[in-house]
């Protein structure tokens, strides 16, 4: 009888142990399931889908190693992270990028140094859409890291998209507001100094011809259309009527320079992306052209109202570039 009771006791203990093991397994399974679910949520939260000029791209939500190709102006204005950026000595943001702690990928022109970009081990690339959309360049960049292509010319829209990526929405609003305030204040000062209804033109000459840039061109838009109290000169209007509505401008012969009727003419030489040597050559060419009788026959030249400005920021867009353009016009017409 005692043996039977002992067997019952052992059997009961065994059932109890098995029950404990079963409960433990269920708890571990539930914990594992909960853990996997949480991990899935975390992974999902670590990326975001962003629409841009060349499609939609899944990017890291907290990107830090960011390589910037042509959108440096907006990124600096937002105080957003820049691991590396393209520039060369003499460009208007070169020193600012160095001071910001960004590594400068030395580049002249609109080319990309893919090897140098890859060496940065970026988790995100931001690129100006215009050059990136050609010759498969965008695809090559996406092979390195997720890449967003944005329109530099429409910088007010693009800076808001960039701000959304980095959580800088308030900063973008401030940058845009500051630009419009600066523009309006400059306009008031210019009108107070020179009066209303004054006309203007913007040209970029070469030894053989000259580009005359229209009001619709993003680089020179703020100079025209009463943004600073100035209107297009007669020749600008005449030539614009001969071109398509959204034309950037046109190339005219130097023989047309004496017909450049405008109270003020702003002139630049060279490219925004040229190296220092090429920029010096372009400026030397401009100085030589100023000695030509055709140049001296420009009505504004006779009144000493031709002003030379830097192509470094006039031939680009962004809040810093636009602010410097405003300063150039303000200094020229009010000093």
From TrEMBL:
<dbReference type="InterPro" id="IPR051313">
    <property type="entry name" value="Bact_iron-sidero_bind"/>
</dbReference>
<dbReference type="GO" id="GO:1901678">
    <property type="term" value="P:iron coordination entity transport"/>
</dbReference>
<protein>
    <submittedName>
        <fullName>Iron complex transport system substrate-binding protein</fullName>
    </submittedName>
</protein>
<dbReference type="GO" id="GO:0005886">
    <property type="term" value="C:plasma membrane"/>
</dbReference>
<feature type="domain" description="Fe/B12 periplasmic-binding">
    <location>
        <begin position="65"/>
        <end position="335"/>
    </location>
</feature>
<comment type="similarity">
    <text>Belongs to the bacterial solute-binding protein 8 family.</text>
</comment>
<dbReference type="GO" id="GO:0030288">
    <property type="term" value="C:outer membrane-bounded periplasmic space"/>
</dbReference>
<keyword id="KW-0813">Transport</keyword>
<dbReference type="InterPro" id="IPR002491">
    <property type="entry name" value="ABC_transptr_periplasmic_BD"/>
</dbReference>
<dbReference type="Pfam" id="PF01497">
    <property type="entry name" value="Peripla_BP_2"/>
</dbReference>
<keyword id="KW-0732">Signal</keyword>
């Amino acid at each position: 009888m005692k043996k039977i009771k002992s067997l019952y006791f052992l059997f009961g203990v065994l059932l109890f142990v098995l029950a404990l093991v079963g409960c433990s397994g269920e708890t571990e399974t539930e914990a594992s399931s909960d853990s996997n679910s949480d991990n899935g949520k975390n992974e999902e939260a670590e990326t975001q889908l962003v629409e841009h000029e060349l499609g939609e791209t899944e990017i890291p939500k907290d990107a830090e190693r960011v390589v910037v190709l042509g959108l440096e102006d907006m990124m600096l204005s937002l105080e957003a992270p820049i691991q590396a950026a393209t520039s060369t000595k003499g460009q208007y943001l070169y020193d600012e990028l160095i001071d910001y702690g960004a590594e400068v990928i030395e580049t002249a022109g609109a080319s990309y140094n893919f090897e140098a970009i890859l060496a940065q081990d970026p988790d995100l690339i931001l690129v100006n859409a215009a050059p990136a959309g050609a010759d498969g360049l965008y695809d090559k960049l996406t092979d390195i890291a997720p890449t967003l292509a944005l329109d530099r010319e429409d910088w007010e829209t693009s800076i808001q998209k960039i701000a959304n990526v980095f959580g800088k929405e308030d900063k973008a609003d401030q940058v845009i507001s500051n630009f419009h305030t600066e523009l309006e204040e400059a306009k008031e000062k210019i009108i107070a100094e020179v009066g209303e209804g004054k006309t203007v033109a913007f040209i970029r000459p070469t030894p053989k011809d000259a580009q005359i840039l229209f009001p619709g061109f993003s680089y020179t838009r703020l100079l025209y259309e009463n943004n600073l109290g100035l209107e297009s000169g007669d020749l600008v209007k005449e030539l614009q009527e001969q071109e398509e509505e959204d034309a950037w401008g046109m190339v005219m012969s130097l023989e047309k320079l004496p017909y450049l009727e405008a109270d003020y003419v702003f002139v630049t030489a060279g490219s925004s992306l040229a190296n220092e040597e090429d920029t010096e050559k372009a400026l030397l060419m401009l100085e030589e052209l100023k000695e030509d009788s055709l140049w001296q026959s420009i009505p504004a030249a006779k009144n000493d109202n031709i002003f030379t400005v830097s192509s470094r920021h006039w031939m680009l867009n962004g809040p810093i570039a636009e602010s410097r353009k405003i300063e150039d016009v303000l200094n020229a017409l009010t000093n």
